[in-house]
């Protein structure tokens, strides 16, 4: 049976409606740009769901549809935790990602192109937020690898500069090229039309490498313990009266940083119990 729905359209009701080749993803967002920084790192931006509200520094679950089950042919979403690297005011969302060659998600995600869709579950959570810290004068961001991502958000967040006189970002990677995303972002802050004036001279950037030669080599934990960070930056050592810190790296890094920060007298806080420092895993394993 056929029926006319308009002058030009004929719908044949007897013909079953064919499923589209790629089924529409649940919570789909569209990729707007992709940049590859090294063979192990890339960043990308996606459309932002209109209803998504988050606090700069939080993370969400994102992913792609997994491979079809060999028995049932059904596909399930393959989701992973990702820090939102863009600030809360941005009309798009940015992510900074590792490429794990045999990683279930990132072996595929690294091939996304503008126009492709990803899944984004709009339920932001996390401890790397201003609400989890008591007021202070200096704010430290300590990161390794993709642990820079939540700080890419917080460095572009006006509240960071409203609340603190000085913001110190440390980023430690194995090789120099792995610092590029962070360096470019820090360099762009002063020219940012929204926060450029607030940033002024407040941000100090302290990159270090652990494998490839660079002007500052070594672990940040060692440099905090021997005081060389403070000497290099010409600032006072960390003290609980003035300093607040956020930490994002591997499990080992986070554990070492906790010990260092506690040795300076800082206590770990949480959303429900703000104190002097907070920690989040950059990845599990
Ligand atoms: C709270 C939280 C926030 C996260 N935010 C980010 C983020 O902003 N960007 C990001 O790239 N990843 C982030 N991750 C890690 C992310 O969830 C995935 O693990 C990563 O995308 C790899 O997924 P996969 O399925 O390819 O491999 P997985 O099976 O998840 O991981 C395989 C192995 O790869 C290594 N690995 C995984 N992620 C990383 C990483 N980021 N850096 C170094 N080694 C890693 C680990 O050894 C892990 O066991 C976050 C994890 C958590 C818990």
From TrEMBL:
It is an enzyme of class 1 (oxidoreductase). Keywords: FAD, Flavoprotein, NADP, Oxidoreductase. Gene3D superfamilies: Nucleotide-binding domain of ferredoxin-NADP reductase (FNR) module (3.40.50.80), Translation factors (2.40.30.10). InterPro entries: FAD-bd_FR_type, FNR_bac, FNR_nucleotide-bd, FNR_type-1, Riboflavin_synthase-like_b-brl. Residues 24-131 form the FAD-binding FR-type domain. It catalyses: 2 reduced [2Fe-2S]-[ferredoxin] + NADP(+) + H(+) = 2 oxidized [2Fe-2S]-[ferredoxin] + NADPH. Its EC number is 1.18.1.2. PROSITE patterns: FAD_FR. Belongs to the ferredoxin--NADP reductase type 1 family. PANTHER family: FLAVODOXIN_FERREDOXIN--NADP REDUCTASE, OXIDOREDUCTASE FAD/NAD(P)-BINDING DOMAIN PROTEIN. This is ferredoxin--NADP(+) reductase.
